[in-house]
Specification:
This protein has two domains: about 140 residues, Rossmann fold; about 150 residues, 2-Layer Sandwich (Dihydrodipicolinate Reductase, domain 2), CATH 3.30.360.10. Helix 3 runs parallel beside helix 4, helix 4 packs parallel to helix 9 and helix 6 packs across helix 7. The radius of gyration is 21 Å and the shape is globular. The protein contains eleven helices and twelve strands. By secondary structure, the chain is α/β, with parallel strands linked by helices. The strands form three sheets. A six-stranded mixed β-sheet has the order 8-10-9-7-11-12. The chain has a three-stranded antiparallel β-sheet with strand order 1-2-3, with helices on one face. Strands 4-5-6 form a three-stranded parallel β-sheet, sandwiched between helices.
Length: about 300
């Protein structure tokens, strides 16, 4: 299977495209003089037309409020006849049904394995290997920043000191509120509920509480009593629909969720066939997220439609 990069769009390079292909080493060197023959355009649709892409990777930063501009990028890619692959959770939260329907009409794929747990095969597991399984609910730890902070607090650090350590490691942002207040975890909970449970869940429907009010003393006391504080994501089917929450909970130390520390993640599924089925990843890196997008590319490229 052959491939070539025909377009790149970044804050530093702008919209650059050449249907004949761009030289990879040149791109990594931030666009040297040898690449000046490529076309420079001003918007996504012109860029797609010039690049003539069969597959588009979308990796802009998360906008939890409305999923933009990623939704517009993915919509334009599908309308241009390209498969659309994203690592951005926002489009799944705010436009999943629209983009899946659009992809089906165009005979293309909308894929997003890297949106939750850094590319671990969650969506492909259910889509390809667990047909007809009815998912009743899940419990998960999905935010590495808060998990790292809580691990530090268990080790004797205050909340402020544990946060500072996470920031020094490059795990936490300068403004960590998106993670600490539970927004990132809530977004991932909605993604899992929408895709795997078919729930029309909105972000504002998730009962959300962050870890900012926890003290080091409380976390250490819980550990001493045989429990661990974790920021737990939950979704469960009820008679009226799917109920979801994100909040700190004290978990018994023999629970698989209590074993996950540092930047690791876990999700435990409850289904009609498998009462307990878990996926765990240990301290993933950027290459893990990149692999999830590569795996989606292989799936899309294998679809000759």
């Amino acid at each position: 299977m052959g491939w070539r990069i025909t377009g790149v769009a970044t804050r530093t390079m702008g919209w650059i495209a050449d249907e004949k292909g761009l030289e990879v080493d040149g791109l990594l060197a931030r666009w040297p003089d040898a690449q000046k023959t490529a076309a420079r355009v001003q918007d996504v649709r012109s860029w797609l037309k010039t690049a003539g892409a069969d597959v588009v990777f979308e990796a802009t930063s998360l906008n939890a409020h409305d999923g933009q501009p990623a939704i517009d990028h993915l919509r334009a890619a599908l309308e241009a006849g390209a498969h659309a692959i994203t690592a951005n959770k926002g489009p799944v939260v705010h436009a999943y049904e629209e983009l899946i329907e659009l992809a089906a009409r165009r005979g293309r794929r909308f894929l997003f394995e890297s949106t939750v747990m850094d590319g671990a095969p969650i969506f492909s597991l259910f889509r390809e290997n667990l047909p007809l399984v009815h998912l009743r609910g899940f419990r998960a730890i999905l935010n590495s920043t808060t998990n790292l902070i809580l691990s530090g607090m268990e080790g004797g650090l205050s909340f402020a000191a544990a946060l500072e350590k996470a920031q020094a490691m490059g795990i936490a942002e300068t403004d960590p509120s998106h993670d600490v207040e539970g927004w990132d975890a809530a977004v991932k909970t909605v993604v899992l509920a929408k895709v795997l449970m078919g729930a029309p869940l909105r972000l504002e429907e998730v009962e959300r509480e962050g870890i900012g009010t926890l003290s080091g003393e409380a976390v250490q006391a819980a550990r001493a009593s045989g429990k661990a504080y974790k920021l737990v994501c939950r979704a469960q089917r009820t008679e009226t629909g799917v109920r979801a929450s994100v909040r700190p909970e004290k978990i018994p130390l023999d629970d698989p969720l209590a074993w996950v520390s540092g930047t690791s993640s876990i999700v435990c599924f409850e289904s009609d066939i498998f009462p307990g089925l878990a996926i765990t990843e240990n301290n993933p890196g950027l290459e893990t997220t990149a692999y999830g997008m590569l795996a989606d590319f292989v799936k899309a490229a294998g679809d000759r439609g």
